[in-house]
Amino acid sequence: MMALTLSGLSVYPIKSAAGIAVNEAQMTPRGLQYDRRWMVVDDQGKFITQRRFPRMALIGVAIADQLQITAPGMPDLSVPLTAESSERVKVKVWGDGCEAIALPPKTKQWFTQFIGIDCQLVYMPDSSHRPTDHGKFGSENLVSFADAYPYLLISEASLAGLNRKLSEQRKSLVPMSRFRPNLVIKGDIAPHAEDSWQQIQMGEAVFDLPKLCSRCSIPNVDLQTGHRTSEPSQTLATYRAWDRGIWFGQNCIQQGNSGVTLRIGDPVKVLRAIAD
Predict the structure, then answer these.
(1) Looking at the 3D structure of the chain, how many domains does it have?
(2) Phi, psi at residue 220, to the nearest 5°?
(3) Cα–Cα–Cα angle for 88, 91, 97, nearest 5°?
(4) Could you write out the DSSP letters of every residue in the chain?
(5) By the number of CB atoms within 10 A of the CB, which of 100, 164, 238, 248 ranks highest?
C-alpha cells in the first residue's frame, strides 16, 4: 500500500452552512478551530439544519478578522469570531442541552429572513460543555455543535467508488463536499478501507476511530441550488445499508492533541485496524 496522506482539510463554522477548504487548521479540545462553533436555532432553541431547510447549503462563510456570511439575495453579514461576554441562552442539539451565546438582533433578522422561520445564530463559548456522543467517551472529550463527534474522515477511494457506481447508471457525480468531512485521505487503498481503521496518526496527531458515520439526507442537497435530490443516498443504499443506516466515512476522536496543527500533505499511518 502506497503512503497515505491528508489531501483535504475543511472546517464548517456554521452548522449546516457551506464549509471552508483550508491548507492547515489548528486542533482544539472540541475539534478543528472554528468548526461548528456557530449554529442556527429556532424560537425554542432547537438546532435547524439542511435536513429541514436545504437552502442553508447556500449560506457561504469566510473567516478573516470576523466571520463573514453571505447568501443569495441577502446583504453581507459579519459577526465577531468570539462573543464570550454576551447573553447566554440554552440550546439543544441531538438531545444535548448546552450553553450558547445569542448574536445581535441584526443577525437574527438576517437568518430569519433567509431561512423563512423565526430563528437566530448562536455561538458556542469555551465555557460551554458538550461531551462527545452524549458522554459515551467521558465528560472530558468535548464536541462543538457537530452532530456527535469532533471529526469526520473519508478517503478519496470511497468517493471514487461511489462515483463509479453513479457513472455506471449515467447519473451525476457528487463532490466530496456533499459529505462534509473534516479530513480527507489519499492513497492506494480500496473504497471504504477506513471502515476497518481503529486508530491512526496524522502528522503529530493521533485519532481513535470509534464509529462509522450514518448518513442522513444532507448529502442529497445540491450545493449549487439548495434543492434536495435522491442521490447519492439512493445508490449508497444498494451497497452501504445495514443496521437501519447508510454508512459512509468514519467519526474520529483526538487523543490529547489540542494545539497541534494539521496540514495538507501530512502523512497518515494506520496504527490499529480490525483484522480482515
Answers:
(1) 1
(2) -85, -5
(3) 110
(4) -PPEEEEEEEE-SBTTS--EE-SEEEEETTEETTTT-EEEEETTSBB--TTT-GGGGG-EEEESSSEEEE-TTS--EEE-S--TTS-EEEEEETTEEEEEEEPPHHHHHHHHHHHSSSEEEEE--TT---BGGGGTT-TTSB--SSSS-SEEEEEHHHHHHHHHHHHHTT-----GGGG--SEEEESS--TTGGGGEEEEEETTEEEEEEEEEEP-SGGGB-TTT--B-STTHHHHTTTSEETTEEEEEEEEEESS-TTPEEETT-EEEEEEE---
(5) 100
This prediction's pTM: 0.96
Over the stretch 192-225, which tens digit does the pLDDT of each residue have?
999 999 999 999 999 999 999 999 999 999 999 9
**CA angle in degrees (0–180, nearest 5) for 208-259-274:** 10
Q: Round to whole Å and give the CA distance between 252 and 249.
A: 10
Q: What CA–CA distance (Å, rounded) separates 242 from 137?
A: 24
- 159, 190 Cβ separation under 8 angstroms: no
Nearest residue to 240 (alpha-carbon basis) of 172, 194, 197, 204: 194
Retrieve residue 178's grid coordinates.
Answer: 456533499
Q: What is the CATH number of the domain that holds 46?
A: 2.40.33.20
CA 181 to chain centre: 6
Domain of residue 163: give its range.
4-273
